[in-house]
Structures are given as structure tokens and as C-alpha cells.
Amino acid sequence: MNLQSTKVLTNGVEMPRLGLGVYKMTEREETLQAIDYALKVGYRAIDTASLYGNETEVGEAIRHAGIKREEIFVTTKVWNNDQGYDATLRAFEVSLKKLNMDYLDLYLTHWAVPQSFEETYRAIERLYDEKLIRATGVSNHHEHHLQKLLAKANIAPMVNQVEVHPYLQQDALKTYCTKHGIALTAWSPLGRGGVLDNSTILEIGQELGKTAAQVVLRWHLQNDTIIIPKSVTPSRIEENAQIFDFELTQAQMTQIASLNLNKRFGQDPDNFKFDF
Ligand SMILES: NC(=O)C1=CN([C@@H]2O[C@H](COP(=O)(O)OP(=O)(O)OC[C@H]3O[C@@H](n4cnc5c(N)ncnc54)[C@H](OP(=O)(O)O)[C@@H]3O)[C@@H](O)[C@H]2O)C=CC1
Ligand SMILES: O=C1CO[C@H](CO)[C@@H](O)[C@@H]1O
């Protein structure tokens, strides 16, 4: 595995296993600099959302990087108050304009709004048919949401992006997704930093001469999970990418597997407050 390692989605599209998450990058210069630095050190995927308010800066940073558009994998998401068939198509147009691109790599339903997530996904299928996106997907979908989509979908979602880290390992959902060819992306792969003081993880880091963040990110990779850690700190952006030249042993993987607490740092998709 190297920094350009990709996960091949069901339609053959290659999605980088490492991307930069840009949630909470709200300062223009900070956002431009973080993305610029990430692309310089080899990242080839950016994960944004209309919610994050930085699609314009994401597009700008990518254009200024001097890397061919087709070499960078761009994901964005339709926010909850834009869901439903027509509203999703309109929201996509807005995101595409802000990003100043003529296609996106992956478009996700951000959360499964109970009344409209199925129609939202139907719109995403249409965007795929029209070749405006290279892959379809969803985020924050439990198995029961996916079951509903799979019952009707012409194109099964290719990606499900959910909270995953050592304290929330999501094994059952992972098994279900694997069975249905749905790649799993971990959001908050570092538990928003909240798993990095774990003594087991720190000890494994000492054994390998790696930081806690590198151990956690490597654990995700060895579980075949795509990761999108967020950082605005150049040294951390680089550190988080230096995870392709070492391996955790089976014993170390098992030690981390034992840390699961089913603990969320974000919201549970079934209890999300959809307050429009
Ligand atoms: N689909 C969804 O609903 C959601 C999607 N996401 C996506 O996932 C991405 C990542 O998740 P996020 O919630 O940001 O959490 P992460 O698990 O990526 O953690 C980010 C935090 O960890 C810090 N950090 C990053 N690298 C290191 C390191 N090497 N050592 C110590 N601290 C570090 C960052 O600080 P600093 O920046 O100061 O360096 C930041 O405070 C988001 O940016 C977004 O793209 C996130 C939440 C929900
Ligand atoms: O993408 C996101 C970033 O984090 C937020 C707060 O947890 C989430 O609500 C949102 O889905």
C-alpha cells in the first residue's frame, strides 16, 4: 500500500483510501493553506459538504494546486434541508457551481432524513446516470436505511460514510456493507482527537515508533476502511499521511479491536435532530 492506494468501488472507480476532511475549516486562508499543503504532500481526495460552507475554497485550492482535476477525488454532500428529488438536484447544481467544477467524484446524502432520504438517493442515481458524478453514496445510513435503498435502487450506493474509530468500530454495519459491495468511509477517524490518549494505542505507537494518530489511521486502513482525517496543522496533515510504510501486527489489530465502547463523538443517525 502506498499514499496513492485506492479502493476500487463497485463500478470500477478508484477512490483514494486517504482524503482530507475539511469540516470546521471556516477561515478562508486557513482552508486554502490546509488543502494546498495536503495536495503538496500527496493527498488526492478532499471531503467537504454544503454544510461546511467551504466548497468555494475547496474548488479554488484544487485549481491552484496545478494538479489535473481527474487526479483529485472530490466528495460533497447534500444537506438535510435540501433533501427530496428536485431539491437534491438543485442543491447539487449549487455545490457544483461553488466548487466551480463540471463533475464531482462522489455525492452523498448527508443524513437519512426519514421523509425524504429515498427520494434524495433517487436524485443521486440520476446525477450518476447523467455522468455528473462518478460514484453514488450516502452518509450516516444504518443498515435499516440501506435495506430500504437497496430494495428500490437501480444502482446500489457505492459508499457509506459513517462515524468509525476505535471506540465505535461498527463491525455489524461493516459486514453488511461489505456483503453488498458498499465501501465504508470513516468520518471522525480519530474520534475528533478523543481516542489519541488511549494507553493501548499509545503503547502500540511506542512499539512501532509511530504516533497515536498514525496507529489509529493504519488500523482503519488494515480494516479496509477509507479515511478522511481533518487537520489544519501542516505537521499533522503530513503525519496523517505517513501511514503507508508500516503495518500493525495481527496482535496489535486485536488489541485495538478490544477497545470498542460503542461510543459516539457525533450524533446517532436514528436520533439526529432534523430541525428545519
Ligand atoms: N458525514 C458526516 O456526517 C461527517 C463527516 N465528517 C468528515 O470527516 C472529517 C474528519 O472528521 P472530524 O470530525 O473532523 O474528526 P477527526 O477524527 O478527523 O479529528 C479532527 C481533530 O483531530 C485533530 N488532529 C488531526 N490530526 C491529528 C494528529 N495527527 N494528532 C493530533 N490531533 C490531530 C484536528 O486538529 P487540527 O485541525 O487543529 O490539527 C481536529 O481537532 C471531517 O472533516 C468531515 O470531512 C465529520 C463528521 C461528520
Ligand atoms: O458532517 C458533519 C460534521 O459534523 C457535524 C457535527 O457532528 C455533523 O452534524 C455533520 O454531519
Please tag this protein with its features:
10 strands, binds 1,5-anhydro-D-fructose, TIM Barrel, single chain, 276 residues, alpha/beta, binds NADPH dihydro-nicotinamide-adenine-dinucleotide phosphate, 15% strand, 8-stranded parallel sheet
What does this structure look like?
- Residues 20-260 form the NADP-dependent oxidoreductase domain.
- InterPro entries: AKR, Aldo/ket_reductase_CS, NAD(P)_OxRdtase_dom_sf, NADP_OxRdtase_dom.
- The protein has 276 residues and is of the alpha/beta class.
- The chain has a domain at 6-190 and 225-230: TIM Barrel.
- It has ten helices and ten strands.
- The strands form two sheets. An eight-stranded parallel beta sheet has the order 3-4-5-6-7-8-9-10. It has a two-stranded antiparallel sheet with strand order 1-2.
- Strand 8, helix 6 and strand 9 form a beta-alpha-beta unit.
- Helix 2 packs across helix 3 (85-99) and helix 7 (199-208) packs across helix 8 (212-222).
- The longest helix has 15 residues, at 85-99.
- It is globular, with a radius of gyration of 18 Å.
- The N and C termini lie far apart (43 Å).
- 1,5-anhydro-D-fructose binds next to loops.
